[in-house]
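Lab meeting tomorrow. Please check the following:
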Amino acid sequence: MLHLIDRSEDVVVAALPQDVDFCTSADVRAAGERLLAGDCRYLVLDSSSVTSLDSSGITVLLAFWQPLREAGGALCVAVPDEHLRWRLGILGLDTVLVITVTLDEAVTQARRLRDGTRPLRSVHQPESA
């Protein structure tokens, strides 16, 4: 359900499917857990094809975020859709996830975090980063 785009050291880039909802969330979560089972400390998700994200999908994002945070890593999500960024902000996810507009920005943020460089300020980013 997640499409692997790139794996470089401990940064993994993957694309979310069109629907991350009650019907698909278990498969998306299982695929993400397989990615996290390796040496992934920074997961970058591309949400550019997402058209449906319900509470089950939000739960999946948080299920990815928690082990990454515990490992000293981060979850970076590229969210080009302005309405989806707004919804994630309303839910407060912009306080725990690194949320950017483009995939390139999300990958850059993940690499900067990995390298111990302060991330560039983007559209939405945790204050503690």
The mean pLDDT is 92.
